[in-house]
Design goal:
two-stranded antiparallel sheet, Growth Hormone, Chain: A
Length: about 475
């Protein structure tokens, strides 16, 4: 009896390589979100005391947060270009991971130069790793494989399992024992992720290879000019990126404005002391894990809902899901508006407003974000596969910068007005995309339809015919 090669092994109906990428991204996100959970809190902490920070004012801290998170994702364009042109996705992920390990290690040093140097290395590392590991997930599945969306949902759960653990562990260590110990713990997580990726190479054979390691057919596809169908699909992707900027511009208030609001204006007292941890109030950074917890628990049910919805013959395109996600996420800010009203009346707001806001943010994210990742791998031409994923993450980065600008503006405009305005704006944008859904779908030329299977194989697409 012949033994199946490692890279063809399946686990729970998916390629084994999916789980290597799952655990790599889990630990990479553990490091990133752990650092993200305490970054703004560290910056605004007094420069003296038992756990000193930089003592910055809130506007400056939010501004740096927005710029940093923007650069992290904008660098994905360069990471995608390098992968497509020279190294391939696999090697670029490897090098990006090494840079991340160094970046988090340097960040643990208590010095101003180390702070900026560490952030710079993390920007470069995420730029190399983030777009290419997501593209590799898409590469595990052939065109028309219906498992692709489910595979991205599994991958997305891995991302948020890492985020959930990091906010609790890194947040606790950073706030209670020392900010730089928290940064160091985040670095340990990245080192584990890098080890998983390096040890799992046999399950990723043929995925994300450099141009020199491609088959002659794949190399030919890389050199081929874009067809009219591919150009139309690129237009749809660029339009979807605008939706992504809006989504993350609102959603990423979590790490900045909402993080500070939690710390300063929410009643975090428990009324008792947790014995082992010796804390009587919930650390503000722990609320960064609420979103991840809901993703882990609701990811499969929401994905199953959309499958059920599609089987009933209802509209279930990626663009619709993204638009619905923007609307639902926007509605979450109405709970923050309620929290702001309670704070103005009583001097503090209850924790459940935050939980409800994160619940709606999560439902919106599950409708939009994993679907968007899969959508890009379906529409992007082979020659620009990593680059377009990089542009997607750059759009995410621009959304992060928008989030920082909104957070800065809230210092003068008022939080109630900002939260309510975000809810209204997201609703309007989502409804506008739904109104334009039919013409936008025509430009995809059936990329998400079953009929594409058999017409598109290994990156080769119909050049002159429109897939109905």
């Amino acid at each position: 009896m012949s033994i199946r090669p490692a890279h063809q092994t399946e686990i729970f109906g998916h390629p084994a390589g999916l789980y290597i990428l799952f655990f790599t991204e889990l630990w990479e996100r553990f490091s990133y979100y752990g650092m993200r959970a305490i970054l703004v809190l560290f910056l605004i902490s007094a420069s003296t005391g038992d756990n000193p920070g930089f003592g910055w004012d809130e506007a400056d801290a939010i501004s740096l947060y927005g710029t940093y998170t923007m650069l992290v994702y904008v660098m994905s364009i360069a990471g995608g270009w390098v992968a497509d042109k020279f190294w391939g996705q696999k090697r670029t992920v490897l090098i990006g991971g090494i840079l991340l390990c160094f970046g988090h290690g340097v960040l643990a040093v208590e010095a101003l130069w180390a702070f900026y140097a560490g952030l710079g290395l993390i920007v470069l590392g995420v730029g190399g790793l983030k777009p290419n590991i997501s593209t590799m997930v898409g590469g595990l599945y052939k065109q028309g494989d219906e498992r692709r969306d489910k595979g991205f949902t599994i991958f997305y759960i891995g991302i948020n399992l890492g985020a959930f653990l990091s906010a609790l562990l890194v947040g606790y260590v950073g706030e209670v024992h020392g900010w730089h110990y928290g940064f160091g713990l985040a670095g340990i997580g990245m080192a584990i992720g890098q080890a998983v990726f390096m040890l799992g190479q046999k399950y990723l054979k043929g995925i994300g290879e450099s141009t020199t390691e491609m088959t002659p057919e794949e190399q030919a596809a890389k050199k081929r000019p874009l067809t009219d169908v591919e150009k139309d699909r690129m237009k749809v992707m660029l339009i979807s990126f605008l939706l992504i900027i809006v989504f993350w511009g609102a959603f990423e208030q979590a790490g900045g404005l909402m993080n500070i609001y939690t710390k300063q204006k929410t009643d975090l007292s428990l009324g008792f002391t947790i014995p082992l941890l010796e804390i009587s109030a919930i650390p503000a950074s722990w609320f960064q894990s609420v979103n991840a917890f809901f993703i882990i628990t609701l990811g499969i049910p929401i994905a199953s809902f959309w499958v059920w919805w599609k089987n009933k013959g209802k509209e279930s395109s990626s663009l619709l899901k993204m638009a619905v996600g923007v609307i639902i996420m926007g509605w979450g800010f109405l709970f923050m508006s309620a929290a702001s009203l309670e704070y103005e009346a009583q001097g503090a707001s209850a924790m459940y407003w935050l939980v409800l806001a994160y619940l709606f943010h999560t439902i919106g994210e599950l409708c939009a974000s994993p679907v968007a990742l899969s959508f890009i791998t379906k529409l992007a031409p082979l020659k620009y596969a990593s680059l377009m994923m990089g542009v997607y993450f750059a759009a995410t980065g621009l959304g992060n910068k928008v989030a920082g600008l909104i957070g800065e503006y809230s210092q003068s405009a008022g939080e109630l007005e900002i939260f309510t305005g975000i809810a209204i704006f997201c609703t309007v944008i989502g409804l506008l995309v739904i109104a334009l859904l039919k013409p936008l779908k025509r430009l995809t030329h059936g990329a998400e339809e079953k009929e594409v299977e058999g017409l598109e194989q290994e990156g080769f697409e119909l050049a002159d015919e429109e897939v109905k």
